[in-house]
């Protein structure tokens, strides 16, 4: 939960009065809240932290940062919703 | 993050490290605040590269490690209640309380769920109106706005079964305490990037002026 991961905004919608959307991280697409970055549009790149986009970044930097995080081997932990732990006990 | 390629250029890195060693007239003790920074410094051997000129001291910036024991005990007590679904970030499950941890409570039948985002906890409360859903809201300046948004969402949805067990901490007061200690050896800080993305750098500028200490924002 420490990291922010860069991803591409693929869809924007308003859900329960909150601006949110879908963000692509490599091959994974996750739901994210976009309320803290009202300037963001579909196709933009954002840094996502605990499901919230906290800043807009440019495409090249986003892709390189993603690649760096991938080589550090930290993406699985950050993007997985807890793996088996997320199922009801 | 900017200039990633430049930061990863071996020649530039060696040149800069050599320049830092050459220019240092005395050893410096620097603290990196964030656990992510520590991880990167160690992984890439930057501490060794800097030689004796810079001693890196690991800071308090791990949200899991700085969550007080009594808050973990409270989370455990809540998770043991039959009417409660305790929702947490995955990192918290193995953090020991005074007797056990959330992972063991879950194994014993407690309803402990792991989520990626606090909004997932709101959805759990929405789909389980018969259960009290408690989100263990830990972390620094970066998670606090997300937790606030979860509260706002719960209010909009008029949920009566969603609550937070709040354990937020701020970075600047921790730095202030360190700098105010007579035993302090830290002469400069690498401040956390994500935290400053959220709250800006004003608090850090104040610390720079008040304590005459250099602070650079970088990384996580």
| Helix residue percentage of chain A | 10-25%
Strand order of the largest sheet of chain B: 2-1-7-8
* Biggest sheet layout of chain A: 5 strands, antiparallel
CATH topology of chain A: SH3 type barrels
Tally of individual helices of chain A: 2
Pick out the low-confidence regions of chain A: 82-89
CATH architecture of the largest domain in chain B: 3-Layer(aba) Sandwich
Derived from helix and strand composition plus strand pairing, the structural class of chain A reads alpha+beta
CATH topology value of the largest domain in chain B: Rossmann fold
* CATH class placement of chain A: Mainly Beta
The CATH superfamily title of the largest domain in chain B:
HypD, alpha/beta domain 1
Helix-strand pattern of chain A: EEEEEHH
| Tertiary shape of chain B | elongated
- Largest interface in this structure: A-B, 37 and 45 residues
Description:
The complex is a heterodimer of chains A (89) and B (220). Chain A has helices spanning 59-72, 75-79; strands at residues 5-15, 18-25, 28-33, 45-49, 52-57. By secondary structure, chain A is an alpha+beta fold. Chain A has one domain: SH3 type barrels. Chain A has a five-stranded antiparallel sheet with strand order 3-2-1-4-5. With 220 residues, chain B is α/β, with parallel strands linked by helices. Chain B has two domains: 4-63 and 171-218, Rossmann fold (3-Layer(aba) Sandwich), CATH 3.40.50; 69-168, HypD, alpha/beta domain 2 (Rossmann fold, 3-Layer(aba) Sandwich). Chain B has helices at residues 4-7, 10-23, 35-43, 46-49, 69-79, 102-107, 118-127, 144-156, 171-180, 193-199, 202-211, and strands at residues 28-34, 54-61, 84-89, 112-115, 132-139, 162-168, 188-192, 215-218. In chain B, the strands form two sheets. In chain B, strands 2-1-7-8 form a four-stranded parallel sheet. A four-stranded parallel sheet of chain B has the order 4-3-5-6, with helices on both faces. The N and C termini of chain B lie close together (9 Å). The interface between A and B is large, with 37 and 45 residues.
């Amino acid at each position: 939960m420490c990291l922010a991961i860069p991803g591409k905004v693929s869809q924007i919608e308003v859900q329960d009065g909150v601006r949110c959307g879908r963000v692509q991280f490599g091959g994974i697409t996750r739901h994210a809240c976009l309320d803290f970055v009202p300037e963001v549009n579909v196709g933009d790149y954002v840094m996502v932290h605990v499901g919230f986009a906290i800043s807009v970044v440019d495409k090249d930097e986003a892709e390189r940062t993603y690649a760096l995080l991938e080589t550090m081997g930290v993406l699985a932990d950050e993007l997985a919703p807890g793996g088996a732990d997320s199922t009801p006990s | 993050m900017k200039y990633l390629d430049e930061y990863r250029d071996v020649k530039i890195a060696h040149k800069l490290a050599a320049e830092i060693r050459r220019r240092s007239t005395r050893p410096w003790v620097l603290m990196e605040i964030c656990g992510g920074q520590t991880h990167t410094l160690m992984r890439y051997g930057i501490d060794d590269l800097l030689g004796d000129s810079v001693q890196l001291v690991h800071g308090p910036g791990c949200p899991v490690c700085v969550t007080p024991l009594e808050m973990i005990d409270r989370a455990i007590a809540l998770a043991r209640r039959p009417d409660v679904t305790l929702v947490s970030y995955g990192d918290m499950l193995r953090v020991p309380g005074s007797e056990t941890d959330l992972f063991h409570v879950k194994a014993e039948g407690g309803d402990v769920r792991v989520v990626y985002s606090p909004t997932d906890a709101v959805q759990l409360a929405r789909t389980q109106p018969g259960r009290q859903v408690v989100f263990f809201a830990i972390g620094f300046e970066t998670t606090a706005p997300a937790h606030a948004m979860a509260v706002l969402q719960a209010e909009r949805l008029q949920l009566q079964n969603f609550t937070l067990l709040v354990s937020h901490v701020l970075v600047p007061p921790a730095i202030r305490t360190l700098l105010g200690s007579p035993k302090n050896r830290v002469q400069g800080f690498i401040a956390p990037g994500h935290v400053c993305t959220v709250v800006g750098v004003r608090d850090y500028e104040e610390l720079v002026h008040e304590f005459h200490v250099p602070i650079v924002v970088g990384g996580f």
